[in-house]
Specification:
The complex is a heterodimer of chains A (232) and B (363).
Chain A: E1 3-8, H1 11-22, E2 27-31, E3 38-42, E4 47-52, H2 57-63, E5 68-72, H3 73-79, E6 87-92, E7 98-105, H4 114-128, E8 132-136, H5 139-148, E9 154-158, E10 174-179, H6 183-187, E11 190-192, E12 199-201, E13 203-208, H7 215-228
Chain B: H1 8-24, E1 28-29, E2 35-37, H2 38-45, H3 49-52, E3 55-58, E4 62-66, H4 71-79, E5 86-95, E6 107-116, H5 121-135, E7 141-147, H6 148-156, H7 162-170, H8 175-187, H9 191-197, H10 215-230, H11 236-247, E8 249-251, H12 252-265, H13 270-285, E9 294-296, E10 310-316, E11 326-330, H14 332-338, E12 346-351, H15 353-360
Parallel strand pairs in B: 1-5, 7-9
Antiparallel strand pairs in B: 2-4, 3-4, 5-6, 6-12, 7-10, 8-9, 10-11, 11-12
Chain lengths: 232, 363
C-alpha cells in the first residue's frame, strides 16, 4: 500500500510544512479548488498526501490510519498516553515553536514559582472553599507536571480557546497554555512562572508504530528518510 | 512477563472465601454504589484522581466516578449513622484508569474489612492486621509496615513555626515537595525574595487587579512571607533526626529500639513510639511473629494519602511489578475530612483476590 503522510490542512503550519519538504526535494501540493481537502506528492514514489487538522494527526497516527504525520510535539504528548510506544519522532522541523507554560495574574507579586503557586492554592482553597482553578486544554500534560512537582489544591477547568481571558472573567485563577512570544499573556495582565516551560513544542515529523508497514510503505519510508538525510 | 489471567470464577470464589473469613470476624456486610459523585473524591484526592479514576457525566447528577475504592463510601455511610464500634466487610469491583501501564488491571475485585472503634487503637490495628495475615497465611508474601503517626509527631515537634509545620504536614505524602520544603526551611529565604519583601511598594509593576484572588489575599501572603523570613533556619541537627527517621528500615523490634533512642533527642515522638510498642505487643498477642516483621520509617508516604497511623502492605515476593496483594492502615484523618468536624478512629484493609491467587499458585 502507499505510504499515507498526514499534514496540517491549512494556515501557516501547512505552508511551512510544504516548504520544509520542498527543501528536501519532496513537493507537497493541494489539488482542486481552494476548499477541497485533497493533495498530491511529487518527487517521490508511493506516497499519498492526507490533509488533516493538526489536532487530529496524533489520533490518526495512533490508529494506524496514516503512516507518517506532521504535528506539534505538544499535541502528541497531550493526546497519546504512552506516546513513545505508539509513535516515533523522525525529525524536528524547526518551526511552529511554542512553549506550554503556566501563567498567573501579574498582580500576584507573591507567586513566582511552582512552590509559591502551591502555597497560594492552599490559602485560596481555605479562603474560597474550592480548589484554585487553572484553565487549559492540556489536561494530561499539566496534571502530570503538577503531580511530578507536588502541587496540590488546584483543579483544571477546560478551556478550548481564549484561555488568557478566563482570569478576567473569573472562571479561572490561572492559565496553562502555549505561547510563542508571550504577548497575549502580557496583554491580558498575566505572567508566566519562573520555573521554565512545561514543554517546548515544535512541529515534528512522526512515524506511526501502529500503521500497517508492508513492503511498499517501508520502501517509501526509506526513500523519504534518504531524502531527509536520516539513517537508522 | 506476559500477564497470566486467573479465571473470573476462581477470583469470585476466592473473594467469597475471604468475605466468609471477615463475616466470621464479626463484620456486617455492606454494599455501595458503583457510580460515586465525583465531587467528594476530587475534594479529597485533588485533581490527581482524574488520572486514576474513570469519570463520566450524569445529565441530572453531574460528574460521577466509577468507584475507585470502597473506603470513601463506607466511611460516609458509617458517619451518617453507624453504630460504634462497627465492623464492615464488602466485596466488589473497583475501577482504575491506567495511563502508564497497559498490563495493569482497569477493573478488579477488592475484598475489604473496616473497623471503627476508638476504645483501643492498638488492639484495633492488631485485629485488622492479624485478620489479613491469617487470610493470606498460605501465600508467600513480603510484609511491610510503617507508622505515619510517628512521622507527623516528629514534624509537629520541629523547632519552627506552626506555618512551616503545617506546610510539611500537608506535603507528607509528596516526598519531592516535602524535601524541597525542608531544604528551603533549612536554608533561609533567597535574595530575590527578600528584595520583594523589603520593597516599599511590591505592587509597583504589578498591573491591574484581575481575577478572584484579590490584592488583599496577595498582601496576606506577603505578610506571611515576611514573618517567615524572620524565622531562623531549621537547625541541621533536626533535619538529620528527621532523615534518620525517614531512612529507618529494620525488623520491628530493632526499629522500635532505634526509635526509642531517637525519642531522647526528639521528645515529640515519644508518645507515638509508645503507641508503636503497644501495637507490637498487641500483634504478638494475636500470634504475629514480630521478630520477622519489617518496619520502614517512610512506608506509606507515596501511595497512601490520608492514612495517618499504622500502615501495612503485603507484597508478592520478587514481583515488584505487581501492586500489593493487600494494603491497609489507620485513617482517622479521612473520617475527619469526610465527617465535617466529627471524626471516628478507623482502621481497615483490602485484599485483591486475583493477586492472591496469582501469587499463591505461582510456580
Amino acid at each position: 500500500m502507499t505510504l499515507k503522510l498526514g499534514v496540517p490542512s491549512k494556515g501557516r503550519l501547512m505552508e511551512k510544512t510544504f516548504q520544509w519538504f520542498a527543501n528536501y526535494g519532496i513537493t507537497l501540493a493541494r489539488t482542486g479548488s481552494e476548499r477541497e481537502y485533497s493533495g498530491v506528492v511529487e518527487g517521490i514514489e508511493g506516497v499519498e498526501l492526507v490533509l488533516l487538522s493538526a489536532g487530529e494527526v496524533p489520533r490518526e497516527l495512533a490508529a494506524g490510519r496514516i503512516h507518517m504525520g506532521v504535528t506539534g510535539s505538544d499535541l502528541v504528548r497531550e493526546k497519546l498516553p504512552l506516546w513513545h510506544m505508539q509513535v516515533t519522532e523522525l525529525a524536528e522541523m524547526g518551526f511552529g515553536h511554542a512553549d506550554l507554560i503556566i501563567a498567573v495574574p501579574s498582580h500576584w507579586v507573591d507567586v513566582e514559582t511552582l512552590d509559591d503557586l502551591d502555597a497560594a492554592a492552599a490559602a485560596f482553597r481555605a479562603r474560597h472553599g474550592f480548589r484554585l482553578r487553572i484553565a487549559t486544554k492540556y489536561h494530561r500534560l499539566i496534571r502530570n507536571y503538577l503531580r511530578t512537582h507536588g502541587v496540590a489544591d488546584y483543579q483544571l477547568v477546560d478551556s478550548q480557546g481564549a484561555t488568557e481571558g478566563t482570569v478576567r472573567q473569573e472562571t479561572a485563577e490561572a492559565v496553562a497554555d502555549i505561547t510563542s512570544t508571550g504577548e497575549t499573556l502580557r496583554a491580558n495582565h498575566l505572567r508566566m512562572l519562573s520555573d521554565g516551560p512545561v514543554h517546548q513544542s515544535q512541529a515534528t515529523l512522526f512515524t506511526s508504530m501502529i500503521a500497517p508497514w508492508d513492503d511498499e510503505a517501508m520502501a517509501a519510508k526509506e526513500q523519504i528518510k534518504a531524502r531527509l538525510g536520516l539513517r537508522d | 512477563m506476559p500477564a497470566r489471567t486467573i479465571p473470573k470464577a476462581a477470583i469470585l470464589a476466592e473473594a467469597a472465601r475471604l468475605r466468609a473469613l471477615f463475616d466470621d470476624a464479626g463484620a456486617m456486610p455492606v454494599a455501595t454504589s458503583i457510580l460515586q459523585p465525583a465531587g467528594a473524591l476530587l475534594d479529597l484526592y485533588g485533581e490527581d484522581i482524574r488520572a486514576r479514576a474513570f469519570t463520566t457525566s450524569d445529565p441530572l447528577h453531574g460528574e460521577q466516578m466509577l468507584r475507585p475504592d470502597f473506603t470513601v463510601p463506607v466511611v460516609q455511610m458509617h458517619m451518617a449513622g453507624g453504630a460504634d464500634p462497627a465492623r464492615y466487610t464488602y466485596s466488589g469491583e473497583v475501577f482504575r484508569r491506567q495511563e502508564d501501564d497497559p498490563d495493569r488491571a482497569r477493573e478488579y475485585i477488592q475484598v475489604g474489612f473496616e473497623l471503627f472503634d476508638g476504645s483501643d487503637p492498638a488492639r484495633a490495628d492488631a485485629e485488622v492486621f492479624a485478620l489479613i495475615a491469617h487470610a493470606l497465611a498460605e501465600i508467600p508474601l513480603r510484609v511491610a509496615t510503617g507508622d505515619i503517626g510517628i512521622l507527623s509527631a516528629a514534624i509537629r515537634g520541629l523547632h519552627t513555626s506552626d506555618r512551616r509545620k503545617a506546610a510539611l504536614l500537608r506535603h507528607l505524602w509528596r516526598p519531592t515537595r516535602f524535601r524541597g520544603l525542608l531544604d528551603r526551611f533549612a536554608a533561609g529565604p533567597d535574595k530575590r525574595r527578600l528584595k520583594l519583601l523589603h520593597s516599599d511598594d511590591p505592587f509597583r509593576q504589578a498591573g491591574p487587579e484581575i481575577g478572584l484572588r484579590s490584592r488583599a489575599e496577595v498582601e496576606t501572603r506577603l505578610a506571611a512571607l515576611r514573618e517567615d523570613a524572620q524565622e531562623p533556619p531549621l537547625p541541621k541537627a533536626q533535619v538529620q533526626l528527621l532523615d534518620d527517621l525517614l531512612n529507618l528500615q529494620d525488623r520491628a523490634p530493632a526499629a522500635l529500639h532505634h526509635l526509642q533512642d531517637l525519642a531522647v533527642d526528639m521528645p515529640a515522638i515519644f508518645r507515638a513510639v509508645e503507641t508503636l510498642e503497644v501495637r507490637l505487643d498487641a500483634l504478638s498477642e494475636r500470634g504475629i511473629d514480630i521478630d520477622k516483621l519489617d518496619f520502614e520509617g517512610s512506608y506509606g508516604r507515596t501511595n497512601m494519602e490520608y492514612y495517618d497511623g499504622f500502615v501495612f502492605g503485603f507484597y508478592a515476593e520478587g514481583r515488584r511489578d505487581l501492586p500489593p496483594v493487600a494494603l491497609g492502615g489507620r485513617y482517622d484523618a479521612l473520617t475527619r475530612v469526610l465527617g465535617q468536624g466529627r471524626s471516628i478512629p478507623a482502621v481497615g484493609a483490602v485484599i485483591r483476590p486475583d493477586l492472591a491467587l496469582l501469587t499463591g499458585t505461582a510456580p
